[in-house]
Amino acid sequence: MYLFRHALVRDAAYELQPPGERATLHHHALDLLRAMYADPNNPLAVQPWAEDMLPHARAAQDAEGVDRAKLRQEELELAYRAGCHAFERFENDRALELLRQVEEAPDASPRARVGAGLRRGGIYHWLAQRNKATACRETALELAQQAGDRQLETIALAHLASDLHGGDRADEVEGLYRRVLEIERGQNFPTQLAATLGNLGGELTRQGRFEEAEQHYCEALEILKDLGLADHESITTCNLGSLRVEQGRFDEAGELFDNALRIARDCGARRSEGTTLGRMADLALQCGNEKRVEELLEQALAIHAEIHNRLNSAFDLVTRAKLRERQGRTREAIQDYKTAAAIQHEAGWLNDARAAEAAARALQN
């Protein structure tokens, strides 16, 4: 172990080493890091350290006597894990770049390439860039079909269905989700099944089919509780609360939101926390508690900005616009409606965007 007074001195010493010797040292470093952090029974264990290990895995491939193909696959796995870790830390640009390296690598496994593409699609979804999200998910679906992997194909289809929300294709969205559900019920993949049940519940809520939506949400919650997936349990509980708001059952909605917020904060699920705070603000507005609306929106919008969640910030801007409208702050309300509409157009939530634009025009007139 060496310490250098300046990075340039370190770089010079590094470059003066013979390439073969340098690659061997990288291989030794990788072995040490792998022994410290990797767990063959838990691929997620290495995730926080993956980006530190990645350059060693890449450079070690030039060492003599090593299995280059095996090291290359380890490099790709580390790039994927590092991308996932960056996403969890809301470092979206870095996550997108690391995952792109895996998605575009022809020697990566189909599962790795599909997983990377779907992760990138998810990031673009929260950034409200639907065209890019859809492109990633369509590529992932094509790769899964080429590999003949039914499970991967089903996951990609479920992700693609979520890109159709908020537009004029409700029948197509529902049909695709039901097709995916039929496949998933025959597979042993409960996490994805719960996600699809929750997404279909959201679509049915938008269609006003509340009893069906509730059945799907409740089934999803049972699965998530059994699996101990608190972050997913939080957002599904929040969505069930939104269903109660649509039914006019405000007291029950408030209890569900409080529970969702508690779960989110207990497990550190920032995206779910911000989403729930925004839904609580909308409920407070409907109940006429304007001071509470201000407090909740301030918290929600701060979290959305912190984690780059443009999609949900648009919905909360609409809530703030409605509040400003009540307060007689017309110019601010118009600006919030317009900003929200612009984001929702980019995100593909066309019905919501049209509603926000109509509200802005009504105030201008």
Structure description:
With 365 residues, the protein is mainly α. 80% of the residues lie in helices and 0% in strands. The chain has helices at 7-16, 19-37, 50-59, 68-88, 92-103, 110-126, 130-147, 150-162, 170-185, 190-206, 210-227, 230-246, 250-267, 270-286, 290-307, 310-326, 330-347, 350-364. Helix 4 packs parallel to helix 6 (110-126), helix 8 (150-162) runs antiparallel to helix 9 (170-185) and helix 16 (310-326) runs antiparallel to helix 17. It is elongated.
Attribute tags:
365 residues; mainly alpha
Topology:
Blueprint: H1 7-16, H2 19-37, H3 50-59, H4 68-88, H5 92-103, H6 110-126, H7 130-147, H8 150-162, H9 170-185, H10 190-206, H11 210-227, H12 230-246, H13 250-267, H14 270-286, H15 290-307, H16 310-326, H17 330-347, H18 350-364
